[in-house]
Write a structure and sequence with these properties.
35% helix; 187 residues; single chain; seven-stranded mixed sheet
Length: 187
């Protein structure tokens, strides 16, 4: 069985859509960045930290998603003012979304990430405030969700599920490491 180390409803949805046998056991960690830490160093450290306590028989999966503009990470906003500021920075521009994947199985730890480029509509402050009021994007990196109808995303290059927060392509690259764990669910 897979143990998902995340509370994200979007990650849960992705695993449910794959019809995998899993349970959710999130790991609470400090997600503060270190001085001088690059976005990808941060992503790897946080993703692997979320794996938490490990035992030999666990099949643990952790994820973290970051929005990066001009080599600066836009975290989850803590309030409407921060969400407004982030969405104003992103309006009419493009940025990168990285989702990290941590896997622990039979004593082996793996890390991989995927990246996508996202292009935003040019929005005025009224449109941004309406979006914030409608979707309350306070649990989303960069203050938005690609899945939000009439949201700020104009277009993207790369994987939809990566932007959603679960790098499914990376997940299946490691499938052979633990396919026997998954067979019982599809028998």
């Amino acid at each position: 069985m897979i143990i998902l180390r995340s509370r994200s409803p979007r990650r849960k949805q992705v695993l449910e859509s794959l019809d995998l046998d899993f349970r959710i056991e999130p790991e609470d960690i400090d997600e503060s960045s270190f001085p001088g830490e690059s976005p990808l160093e941060y992503l790897k450290r946080i993703t692997l930290s979320k794996l938490g306590t490990r035992t030999r028989n666990d099949l643990l999966v952790s994820c973290d998603t970051i929005v990066v503009q001009n080599n600066f990470i836009l975290q989850k906003p803590t309030n409407g003012k921060e969400a407004l500021q982030m969405l104003e920075k992103l309006s009419g521009k493009n940025h990168l979304v990285y989702s990290g994947l941590g896997i622990y199985h039979e004593g082996m730890e793996q890390f991989a990430f995927d990246s996508s480029r996202v292009y935003f509509h040019s929005w005025n402050q009224g449109q941004i405030l309406n979006y914030i009021e409608r979707y309350a994007p306070f649990d989303k990196a960069g203050s938005y969700g690609i899945q939000d109808a009439d949201g700020p995303v104009r277009n993207y290059e790369g994987s939809y599920t990566n932007i959603l927060g679960f790098p499914i392509r990376m997940f299946f690259r490691y499938h052979d490491l633990w396919k026997n764990e998954l067979k019982g669910n599809h028998a």
